[in-house]
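Key result, reporting period 2: structure in, sequence out.
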């Protein structure tokens, strides 16, 4: 797929901008470590939305939801209040009922890598919260952009 600034989809994945707000920081003005996970969650949600899938509709129409199964983050540099960041989303592997993502957070404008992460998401049947195959229409779209 050709990179297009308007939808933030590129040949290397998806990027979502985040501005660091005061509420994201600790008393020293540095982003609190757990908030990087929140930034990554937002980016995955926007990635899915960009592909045409709203999570509330997937739950209502298909009875599926996505949940984090594992996360591993390496904190390389601190982000501070009012900085502009980019959160990357790229599929590393796809299983029958899971997606593993590489998620990198960079600081603008020089794209300095500040957090390097891996997040595994499980597709679950909403009733019973058991693993469930990713709906075929999602797989087709993912593989079309992947």
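The corresponding designed sequence is given below.
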């Amino acid at each position: 797929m050709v990179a297009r600034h308007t939808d933030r989809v590129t040949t290397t994945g998806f990027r979502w901008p985040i501005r660091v707000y005061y509420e994201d920081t600790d008393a020293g003005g540095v982003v609190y470590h757990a908030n990087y996970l929140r930034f990554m969650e937002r980016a995955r949600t926007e990635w899915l939305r960009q592909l045409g899938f709203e999570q509330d509709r997937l739950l209502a129409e298909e009875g599926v939801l996505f949940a984090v199964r594992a996360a591993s983050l390496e904190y390389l540099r601190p982000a501070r209040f009012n900085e502009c960041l980019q959160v990357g989303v790229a599929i590393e592997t796809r299983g029958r009922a899971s997606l593993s993502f590489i998620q990198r957070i960079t600081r603008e404008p020089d794209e300095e890598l500040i957090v390097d992460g891996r997040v595994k998401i499980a597709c679950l049947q909403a009733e019973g919260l058991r693993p469930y195959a990713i709906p075929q229409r999602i797989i087709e779209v993912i593989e079309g952009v992947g």
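Residues 9-145 form a domain with the Thiol Ester Dehydrase; Chain A fold (CATH 3.10.129.10). The longest helix spans residues 35-50. This case is discussed further under Risks and Mitigation.
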